[in-house]
Write the structure tokens for this entry.
Amino acid sequence: MKKISTRIPKKRGHVTQIGKLHECLLKRHSRNSFTSYPQGIREIRVKSLFLLLAAILLAACAQPATATPVPASSPSPLPSSPSPLLTSSPLPPTSTLTPCDPSAADYCLTDGTFLLQRPIAAPANDAVDRAYPYASTAGGTREPHHGVEFPNASGTPVLAAADGTVFYAGDDSSTRFGPWTNFYGNLVVLEHSLASRTIFTLYGHLSIVNVVAGQPVRAGDKIGEVGATGVAIGSHLHFEVRLAPEDYASTLNPELWLALHPGAGVLSIRLADGDGNFVTAPLSVQYFPDAGGAFTQAWQPDVYPDELLIINHWENAALGNLAPGHYRVTFLWEGVWQERWVEVQAGKLTQVEFVMK
Ligand SMILES: [Zn+2]
């Protein structure tokens, strides 16, 4: 039976009184995390349990030398649970301090690299389509997605995501950018220098191209218009971030690069074995707007398939455009239920790493 080892952050910065309390709570949490439970789960009201556990934890933190071990996290009554195995830790861990090592902490909150402007401007739809995000197979019905979609009417202006140079502008009937030619139809590829590296952004299925190769562009310049050329179901912008311009296998998740909507955060998840190799498990992420309450939303983000792991991603799953608050990441690993509580903050990237041993 494989279980995750829980770890306390190795590095801690400012230790205040509050920090000490958080640290203690975090230790308590870690000590009691990732417990697997019998399948017969008893009905217990989470709210009252939360208050009870909070009181126990606070008391335990005040007297660490004589503290009684806190009971393991309790069964959840969540009536809308997608699985009867779901259990809830009623007291989420506090955020970790910086600097933070995701392999040593429950999770890390970082500034991320949200350096790209959105290629569609409001009032047009500037939100990534959640039905077919990066790596998604849309429930097994489509190829793993190497980019993200911005569904919009044909003719909607498409804007450069950052300062750069036009690497390519035209159609892909003779130059292959995807799995085959005539895949993106009319497209533009821009070259940028960002975060001390060269990256490329790709804009596919355009109805009109407004730039030519070699032309310098500024962030926000109009480079074309939304269309449905190439392999497209309806008019939309297909947007990619790449490390190499003509390499379909070198894409990064655009949601880890695009500027966030106000009030939103992003969660990235790494599932790896003890040697650092990515592993796959069916993930579930649930949003708990109120501590101790029931979750109100759940997602099953696709773990990146092998064809997207040719380059060195840190993560192998991610969720964008999340409301701030507490989330639980869960999955089954060799029959044992795994869970981790994490926090999402506006404008931040939350990184959570599971090391499966
Ligand atoms: Zn697409």
User: Anything to note?
Assistant: Residues 148-252 form a domain with the Glucose Permease (Domain IIA) fold (CATH 2.70.70.10). The chain has two domains: 17-112+260-356, 148-252. Helices lie at 17-31, 46-62.
